[in-house]
User: Fold this.
Amino acid sequence: MGGSTASLRAYVITRVILMVPMLVLLLTFTFIILRVAPGDPVSTIYGERGNPQVIDRIKTELGLYDPLYVQYFRYLHDVFTGHMGTSILTQRPVIDEISSRMPATIELTLSSMLVASVLGIGLGTFAGTRRDRLPDFGTRLYGALAYNIPIFWFGLILKLVFAVWLGWLPVSGRFSPRLSTPPTVTGLYTIDSLLALNLPAFADAVAHLILPSLTLGIVLSGFFVRITRVNVIHAMGSDYVEAARSRGISERSVFFRHGLKNALVPVITTMGLTFALLFSGAILTETVFSFEGMGRFVYLAISYRDYPAIQGAVVYYGILMVIISLAIDILNAFVDPRIRY
Amino acid sequence: MAGWFARGRTSLVGRLIGTFLRQSRSLAGVLVWVGIAVVLVIIVMAILAPFLAPFDPNTKVADPEVPPGGPFVMGTDRGGQDVLSRIIWGSRVPLAIIAVATTISLALGLPLGLLSGFAGGRLDRTILLVMDSIYAFPGLLLAIAIAAVIGRGVLNVSFAIAVVYIPTYFRVIRNHVASVKEEPYVEAAIALGMSRRRVIGRYILPNVAQSIPVIFSVNAADAVLTEAGLAVLGLGLPPGIPDWGFDISLNWQRFDASWWATFFPGLFILILTTALTFVGEGLNDILNPLLRKRETKVGAEA
Assistant:
């Protein structure tokens, strides 16, 4: 027992140390893309109509004439002290924009993850236990369609049908303007309204969340259906399941206690990878539903050529991804001891 | 050098076709055929666009937002352009992006994967770390960052998309190489003093090449979706080139008034990506012996 805890601790420490080069790589990569690639930010923003002298002055102010290594270390310093410049669009510091919008994106990704896992694991198990029969074929078709649907277009259809034509759910936004938002604790409206015991606000926040999370969740469920199906097939054909069957254990019990339990370990392991997919999807989903999160901010930043905002969003999204993948790897090591070795 | 490559390739292609024909009457085979047929139809549509399209895709041919019917099978868009003609011409863009982007990804991912998997050790770990960092990053955001800097155009967008998928090729190939390297026949070849280049060319590459069509078709579908995402966000191709993603970005704000102008381009994206996935899934079932094992165990020896 002691040995197992020690190996877990060693794994966590190694993994945290490994996070440093990963972060440095990521930041360097972003630096290269955004600063060294042809087309500098100032000319991109001010375009041809810009006065060359003004452009020159701004470039000097921004330090774009300094040697690259000076620029690089200043950039690292800025990232870690949260000085990512001011958004041209909103005239607020980029870091404030990002931190005020982050909870919306987290709320959306978590609820989409819930939709995706319930649908994906449920259908994947259903298909996997009926291999090569009609339900399996139907579910695989669902998986392929869900995974390949252009998410933006799918969101528009859901919005048109359920919000515009049927009027069942709100068309856009995170919250109705007629209600006052609950006091901020976590920034997640659903949780904050529950904490404030404000049920109408909770119902309103959930209603606004349903269509965006269905959009993102159904698309992602295509991925889960496939992974679950393959692993259920694999587990149910394995030696330990044969052994359990031969001992006369009921098929139901074989399935739940031996098959499904083992099939879900790799599913949980791959869940971490889906966060990158989720964040990509969130950019488009938030744009369709005017859901004021990070993704919508990225869209606005692109539309207005708000260069500091794009850069800030990319950097902090990246940092967030590194932290999430660390958390998931540690969780995996906890669930599946083989990973530690 | 050309000799070993040619030999490896012919035997590989022959083997692939052989397996393919043997399996093609199964469910997986049907999927592949349906997928291939749909992709071929779209390719033909792209090539014959000037003859197939009833109208010029870039001119106003009627009132804006005419509903489907009459001469305008899919209606007209906000600019009074024929939606069907734009869809036919627009099929060229995703196909071009697939071709260019996957070529770039493969050209960088394959050698890196071979190198990393074969060399092992510190070099392997370093490349792996770089690739994992790219892989962990949200693909669309990475493409956005690159596209925002290098600007519009087929090559630029393809490059932005290619960077996103290099790690996918790299990972599959690297892992495959690392496992093949442990096989007795490879160890034997090395022990007998065969040069590294020959070992890779004679034994490793032909083995690894089997996984390329599968990654290709999956990545091709993803590339189409990423291109559409970039176009919707305003980072796609310059205006004037008919493109399914661009047409969505042009018309989506009027979706409740003229659904057809947004619906049909999206539908065609879905048809193409699903067809590509069918090809990939079917090939995977056919080429991946692990999934096939049970069938052969149970069934026909023929």
Summary: Chain B has a mean pLDDT of 79. The radius of gyration of chain B is 22 Å.
